[in-house]
Amino acid sequence: MAAGSLTLSLTACGALGVSSGSSEASPTKGNDITVGLLLPEKANTRYDKFDYPIIKEKVATLTKKQGTVDYANADASASRQAEQLQKMIDDQVDVILLDAVDAHAIADGVKKAKDAGIPVLAYDRLAEGPIDAYVSFDNALVGEVQGRSLLEALGDDIDTSDKIVMMNGSLTDPNAKQFKTGALSELQGQVTIAKQYDTTDWKPENAESNMLMAISAIGANNIAGVYSANDGMAGGIIKALKTAGVDKLPPITGQDAELAAVQRIVTGEQYMSVYKPYPNEAEAAAEMAVAKVQGRGIQFDALASDRVDSPTDKDIPAQLLPVVALTKGNIKSTVIRDGIYKVSDICTGKIESACEAAGLK
After folding, report:
1. Segment 76-83 mean pLDDT
2. Residue from 145, 342, 201, 208 nearest 262 by CA
3. Measured in whole angstroms, how far is the alpha carbon of residue 41 from the centre of its chain?
4. Residue 315, by phi and psi: left (phi above 0), alpha (psi -120 to 50) or beta?
């Protein structure tokens, strides 16, 4: 949630701290560093609202306010992210935190950064190419938690003939495959997966369209539950069900603890989300990036005590963080306790009475 020191083969002129005749990088940067931060999209509000500001603040704290963060968001465009990565290489940032739009397509850019002597740490999604380290949540566990929660929502009289729809994430996101694998480990043999979709770009409107097709094929009243890999798609799924005239919604999962999803959990429209403590992930990423570029190997190894494999590289140092199933009963002890939201953020307008019933007022 020990690693030996990583070696970096640096071929570009001016690579950090490379002694003549040595193939091992020994960065000697001080506090005056620039961390490049490449985040993947804006449909999920977490990136601009949590990840970027937390990483920016942590880098400043770790560098006595001398370090800066150069931030770019690709807005779900792999080609735009490739251009943003190239610009950071051209600008000679000291280290890059990369949350890939397309883990495979970005591999060439990762190699270019490596050749330029710039370490690349995969953030939240494991990119291909010569990644120096990876920090994320335990993605298989995310799927397991979602699948287990959906089964719990279906109750003790669950039957293998009960039909569910699986709304998985984007094929370009390696996390989506891990979520799916984890969920299937819980769901297979317990229920019938009547329809399953891989949702392009994780977009809620694509999930809504897929769900309408599923309803047409299965029948709205024959859907016992819906596995949704994240909250944004859960919103699209709920729209589709309401369009089909469903008054009593089946249990629907989610992920990311978005504010709208937390509000839907309060009102009962969405059964659960997966709360991933973003401050922990973002701070860990900042710590790893700064330790890497400053050459503090012992600290870096302690932070990256796990190991993961990508399709192109093996035994990548990693830090994998735990997750929590967020339901109506633990909103106070998760997102409110951790300062992600205030009660006043959640309990607005029409849902105030539901908040009172949930013990949030």
Report:
1. 96
2. 342
3. 11
4. left
- In terms of Cβ atoms closer than 10 Å to its own Cβ (0-12, 13-18, 19+), residue 245 is exposed
> What does the block give as tokens for 153?
């929502």
Q: Average per-residue pLDDT in the chain?
A: 91
Rounded alpha-carbon distances, angstroms, from residue 156 to 153, 165, 190: 9, 19, 11
**Amino acid (1-letter code) at residue 90:** D
CA–CA gap between residue 61 and residue 66 (Å, rounded): 9
Q: Quick check: 15 pLDDT over 80?
A: no
Q: Which of 331, 250, 317 is nearest to 285 (CA)?
A: 317
DSSP strands (E only) in the chain? 34-39, 68-73, 95-98, 120-123, 133-137, 163-168, 192-198, 225-228, 273-275, 306-308, 316-321, 324-326
Name the β-bridge partners of 319: 135
**What's 40-87 look like in SS3?**
CCCCCCHHHHHHHHHHHHHHHHHCCCCCEEEEEECCCCHHHHHHHHHH
Tokens representing 239 are: 């729209």
Contact assessment for residue 327 and residue 146, using Cβ atoms and an 8 Å cutoff: no
DSSP, collapsed to helix, strand or coil, labels residue 164 as: strand
Tens digits of residue pLDDT in 30-53: 999 999 999 999 887 889 988 999
Name the β-bridge partners of 98.
38, 122
Report the 10 Å Cβ neighbour count for 348: 12
Total residues belonging to the chain = 361
The pLDDT value recorded for residue 115 is 97
Task: Indicate the residue type of 240.
Answer: A
Per-residue pLDDT, averaged over 309-318, amounts to 96
SS3 238: helix
Q: In what order do the strands lie in the sheet with 316-321?
A: 68-73, 34-39, 95-98, 120-123, 133-137, 316-321, 306-308
Each residue's pLDDT tens digit, 126-181: 999 999 999 999 999 999 999 999 999 999 999 999 999 999 999 989 899 999 99
Model confidence at 244, pLDDT cuts 50, 70, 90, reads very high
Six-digit token string for 242: 């309401």
